[in-house]
């Protein structure tokens, strides 16, 4: 405005200044909503700001936090991935992405993201601790699946028992382990046990197709055709 106050440019500059003031006001409101735990309002305000300030990593991280609090982890991942690219050495973003994938039961993607964190900082305590946990779990699941492919069902069952001991606090792993144990028991013609474990899975996930199929196979072994 000072350097070249010609009409056109002055108008454009004034418009940008007004927009800038408006965005700062929205930013204050968004922070206030976040602090008051009104995450829905905070997301709505951040949406408006990010439509203009597309490359702001910190705003994306803030919106990701809101999504996590609102129980929308996949949307949080999208923002955190952008933040990881926008900010150099963003170990925190990689750590959070890895944790979300882990909680969702996607141990392979979790392992991939936590490795990215350790590439940036091999001494990152949180990432290293998570890496050890995910790597152990990943190895057990891979090993169990290999046993199933080889028809070694007893070994697979023992390995999935270990999976449940390794991660007792994230329900998705227990459910998946039980689903695979149900499959192994059914394939191993241990019908009574298979029916019991498959039923446990179906109480947690009534529409679990794999458990329904495996329980059906077990019922067939017992000549329970109606069931």
UniProtKB/TrEMBL annotation:
Signal peptide positions on this chain: none
SMART domains from the UniProt entry: TPR (SM00028)
Keywords per UniProt: Disulfide bond, Repeat, TPR repeat
Start-end of each TPR repeat: 91-124
Region (Disordered): 1-21
Keyword Repeat attached: yes
PROSITE patterns, alphabetized: TPR
Keyword S-adenosyl-L-methionine: no
Compositionally biased region (Basic and acidic residues): 8-21
A GO term for molecular function: protein-folding chaperone binding
GO cellular component: endoplasmic reticulum
Biological process, per Gene Ontology: protein folding in endoplasmic reticulum
Annotated protein name in UniProt: DNJC3 protein
Protein's organism: Geococcyx californianus
Gene name in the database record: Dnajc3
